[in-house]
Amino acid sequence: MKSEIELLDLIDAYLRGELEGSVLSDFENSRRNEPSFDLKVVEHHNFLLHLNDYKNKIKLSSDLNSIHESLDIQSIKEEVAPEPAKIRRLWKKYRVNTAIAASVAIIAITVTLISTGYFSKSISTNVNLLRREINSIKRSQNAIIKNIGDKPLKGPSDPGEFGGTGFALSANGYVVTNFHVIKGADSVYVQNHEGEAFKVKLIYIDPAYDLAVLQITDPSFEKLASLPYTFKKNPSDVGEDVFTIGFPRDEQVLGKGYVSARNGFAGDTVAYQVSIPVNPGNSGGPLLDNRGNVIGIINGKQTLVDGAAFAIKSSYILKSIEAIPQDSLDEKLVVNKRNTLSGLSRKDQFKKLEPFIYMVKVY
Amino acid sequence: MEKDLNSSVPSDSEIVLGILNDSKVTLKHLYSSYFPMILQLVIKNNGNEDDAKDIFQESIIVLYNKVKAGNFELNSKLKTFLYSVCRRLWLKRLNEQSKTSRNIHDFSELIPVEEDLEKHEEKNRQFILMDLALKQLGEPCKTIIEDYYLQNRSMQEICEKFGYTNADNAKTQKYKCLQRLKKIFFQT
């Protein structure tokens, strides 16, 4: 045991190169002469090589780690990172421009649509509803539009915001007009040919057919004489001579024309196309044939097209009247069945009709 | 699409010489010259920078052992050698992770490095064995062995450090410790 310890120490010293002089030469002699001794030396040496490898690797690893820490890995990573695909690169580069272009386009489109009235709920962009804007009149057109605020009137001092036409359904104060005339109204008045204004109450609306039924509730209203006209149930033929009376100004105006097509704008079966001069304010006016039958109610005209006015067919007025629950009415609404206009000249027809046609004023 | 990553790369023979001389400057140069290439390789093939670090450091150890063993011949570019080693190592790791073989997206030429890697694996095994053996050895043996054989301290220093009264005690201790280490190392 003792000798083994000494021997190991000797071999260690030899391998470290610490032996000198006679000790070294003795040691080398022993290695040459005794194979078993030499084997021990080689064995130990080999084991020490393992240890040495271990040591070197640990040292190298720690060196490498310290170098790694000294590098700016993030910037190297950015430098070598795979480049994004071309489309993504283009998107990255141009997305701001794209966003701006898109916003400009959207704003431009929106402004255009708003300014052309795309969003306002008219029956169609191509059809002018013929209610009159009384206060804010556009004189751009043929100056036909009438500002009724110009003249002092009887009745309410406020001249109203919109005007249209309406006509009596029965002698006891029911009046029909267009829905678009009274749409959004705070209060509605009707004014007869003598300039008397009466307050009315909204009884029934039918936005689909653009119809509204009003009832005069004003205490100063006196019952009318019996109605001279009737309502035609069957559709009229194309070419039939017709006339209308309306309030495009503060006075009743007679317009004359003929039914020019069976259907209305864009094939609308609810209406006729009528070739008749109508203007803002004519909306809600009755369309009558030569015998004095109401065949429709004027509600609009096509823009940019001459002589294409539209009138809701009278059968829809009758349908609307039927749709009103009779129980909810104060007074019975009975449609007149006797026509007293037939055979009269137009002058006499107009005179007879005058009291039954009202200007509708909306506030 | 590849970027030029090797600006101011030292020549291969300079590096080999530096390795033989244990030059830290060379090591640092080598590291900073070729790490970006390996980082690119690993990142492009589903890895991150930590993977790249492991793989690259392993490849440098392979290179070191090869150079130190004295049988390194410059019959290819050092860059190609490192790339090939890293590629193999990374492929192996990918396969271990997913159990399915994958293809690596290549961007450099390759040389066969199987032999070097086999040697490296053998060394790795021994390294792990030695590490385990030293850990099992326990104190004070581990410190004595490390001080004497790994750090080349003299027996005199070790005596003072551990408070042995004479050098013989220290020698006996060293002998016993070494015998135990050998036993553990060769047994496992």
Structure description:
By secondary structure, chain A is of the alpha+beta class. Chain A has 3 domains: 2-70; 84-120; 129-363, Thrombin, subunit H. Chain A has 8 helices and 15 strands. Chain A has helices at residues 2-16, 21-33, 35-70, 73-80, 86-115, 179-182, 314-323, 346-353; strands at 127-129, 132-133, 162-168, 174-178, 188-191, 197-206, 211-216, 230-231, 241-246, 253-261, 271-275, 286-289, 293-302, 309-313, 357-362. In chain A, the strands form 2 sheets. Chain A has a 6-stranded antiparallel β-barrel. The longest helix of chain A is centred in the first third of the chain and has 36 residues, at 35-70. Chain B folds into 2 domains: 12-113, Rna Polymerase Sigma Factor, Chain: A (Orthogonal Bundle); 117-187, Arc Repressor Mutant, subunit A (Orthogonal Bundle), CATH 1.10.10. Chain B has 8 helices and no strands. In chain B, helix 2 packs across helix 4 (78-98). Residues 1-7 of chain B have low confidence and may be disordered. The interface between A and B is large, with 33 and 43 residues.
